[in-house]
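Quarterly update from the structural biology core.
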Amino acid sequence: MSLMIRILSVTALASFALAGQAFAHAHLKNSAPGDKAAVASPSELDLTFTEEMNLKFSGLTVTGPDKGQVKLGEGMLEDGGKVLMVPVSDKLAPGSYTVDWHVLSTDGHKTEGNFTFTVKP
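Predicted structure, tokenized:
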């Protein structure tokens, strides 16, 4: 019986350890503008992640309604390295925009994703 308890204990500990590693990735917590939001032309994009990021290997692109890439300023990290702030260089025309982001957390894990927002007329 004690062997079975030891095996179950080791299995449980291994499961918790692996789950902790999975949560170490920098996941998008929220963004401004938010996913599927209808907004006035934003002056910046703010993406908040669950972990600190490495700015050198993190960034985003924005594609506009004409499928062209939006001109962006230099990104910077805020709020302890968990917020990626990227200025929008020009006023955005009305329409739908897609944000494609990629980040490298300071622990070395890469994540990526995308979201959309609409600029109101």
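The longest helix spans residues 2-22.
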